[in-house]
From TrEMBL, chain A:
Source species taxonomy: Eukaryota, Viridiplantae, Streptophyta, Embryophyta, Tracheophyta
Residues covered by the Peptidase S26 domain: 16-95, 106-150
InterPro entries, sorted: LexA/Signal_pep-like_sf, Mito_IMP1_subunit, Pept_S26A_signal_pept_1, Pept_S26A_signal_pept_1_CS, Peptidase_S26
Species this chain originates from: Dillenia turbinata
Classification via SUPFAM superfamilies: LexA/Signal peptidase
GO annotation terms (biological process): protein processing involved in protein targeting to mitochondrion; signal peptide processing
Protein's recorded name: Peptidase S26
Its biological purpose: Catalyzes the removal of transit peptides required for the targeting of proteins from the mitochondrial matrix, across the inner membrane, into the inter-membrane space.
Record keywords: Hydrolase, Membrane, Mitochondrion, Mitochondrion inner membrane
UniProtKB/TrEMBL annotation, chain B:
Name of the protein this chain belongs to: Mitochondrial inner membrane protease subunit 2
Any Pfam family: Peptidase_S26
Domain of life: Eukaryota
SUPFAM superfamilies per record: LexA/Signal peptidase
Molecular function via GO: serine-type endopeptidase activity
UniProt-annotated location(s): Mitochondrion inner membrane
Family that this chain belongs to: Belongs to the peptidase S26 family. IMP2 subfamily.
Transmembrane is among the record's keywords: yes
Keywords linked to the UniProt accession: Hydrolase, Membrane, Mitochondrion, Mitochondrion inner membrane, Protease, Transmembrane, Transmembrane helix
Entry's Gene Ontology cellular component terms: mitochondrial inner membrane peptidase complex
Active site residues per record: S38, K86
Length: 164, 166
């Protein structure tokens, strides 16, 4: 009797553990979703918030190329993630303006992206904290490549407010 | 027919164990083999022919609260496929004046300074600079293999390199 109950409990626990593991593995290694907001990727992404699908396979196989939008753990605060576009990979030369508003000849800097690093920048160069401020970021900080926008948060909120 | 069913059962068990094992090693604890002598004498002191294996806990990754002296495993900033194990000797915002540099450096926000114990034989922040905390994969707490070396890894703070904070 007790043996049967214990067996059943063990079976159920195992089932739950398996389910949670599959969730974890699919979100860490295959695909996950993320909510991004802020002005730094205007006009590609909305300021008020977008839900993006992020895939983790091309990071693992080293298939990231310049032009991809990536989610990166911020080098200044490991608890935060930032979404930027890769502009250059290791070995590429980059030239950039730290303060694009003050347009003069001395504002330009150029460097070669060091080994194992990528150069990331937001699409909105006027309101983005990116590699122009903290330098090239190590490849290991990249979490994944955003490949699909699921919805605008603002339209979702609109729908919800209409519903109520 | 029964052998086929047996095979199916066994493969299903392996699959389950693999799934749960991978999740646990990603989120909670994992085992990391130490290669090379960069952390000797704390790890791989050269007394036994086997490499040390350490237990790495990952709970510290929820808050990224590290202290000076912690031994951490991190992705190399120059090659994301390599993992290194070193000791944190400086945290963000500290001024740092190592004896081998002629200048004091300030560790930027969200970064830390890592060094091996065996300074003559270690690739660390002295060559690639401070590393972002986001690269850290976990904190080594115990040596678990080989059996004669089992024990806790102590937090030890190297003396004399840090300046008082300004």
């Amino acid at each position: 009797m007790w043996k049967n109950i214990a067996k059943e409990a063990w079976r159920q626990t195992l089932l739950v553990a398996k389910f949670l593991s599959i969730l974890h593995i699919s979100s860490t290694y295959v695909c996950s979703s993320i909510l991004v907001y802020g002005p730094s990727m205007l006009p590609t992404l909305n300021m008020s918030g977008d839900v993006l699908l992020v895939e983790h396979l091309s990071k693992r196989f080293g298939k990231l190329v310049p032009g991809d939008i990536v989610v990166v753990r911020s080098p200044l605060n490991p608890n935060k993630s930032v979404t930027k576009r890769i502009l250059a990979v290791e070995g590429d030369p980059v030239t950039f303006l730290v303060e694009p508003r003050q347009h003069h000849q001395h504002g330009y800097h150029s460097l070669v992206v060091p080994k194992g690093h990528v150069w990331i920048q937001g699409d909105n160069m006027y309101a983005s904290a990116d590699s122009r401020h903290f330098g090239p970021v190590p490849y290991g900080l990249i979490k994944g490549r955003a490949f699909c926008r699921v919805c605008f948060l603002s339209s979702l909120l609109l729908l919800i407010s209409e519903y109520f | 027919m029964s052998s086929r069913k047996f095979l199916w059962d066994v493969s299903r068990k392996f699959f389950t164990v693999g799934l749960i094992g991978l999740t646990v090693s990603d989120r909670y604890v994992s085992i990391f083999p130490v290669r090379g002598a960069s952390m000797s004498p704390t790890l791989n002191p050269g007394t036994s022919s086997h490499d040390d294996h350490v237990l790495v806990e990952k709970f510290c990754l929820q808050k990224y609260n590290f202290k000076r002296g912690d031994v951490v495993v991190f992705c190399s900033p120059t090659n994301h496929k390599e993992k290194h194990i070193k000791r944190i000797t400086g945290l963000a915002g500290e001024w740092f004046a190592p004896t081998y540099l002629y200048d004091a450096v300030r560790i930027p926000e969200g970064h830390c300074w890592v060094e091996g114990e065996n300074l003559a034989n270690s690739t660390d922040s002295r060559s690639f600079g401070p590393i972002p905390l986001g690269l850290i994969q976990g904190r080594a707490t115990h040596v678990i293999w080989p059996p004669q070396r089992v024990g806790k890894i102590n937090r030890r703070v190297p003396e004399g390199s840090r300046l008082p904070s300004f």
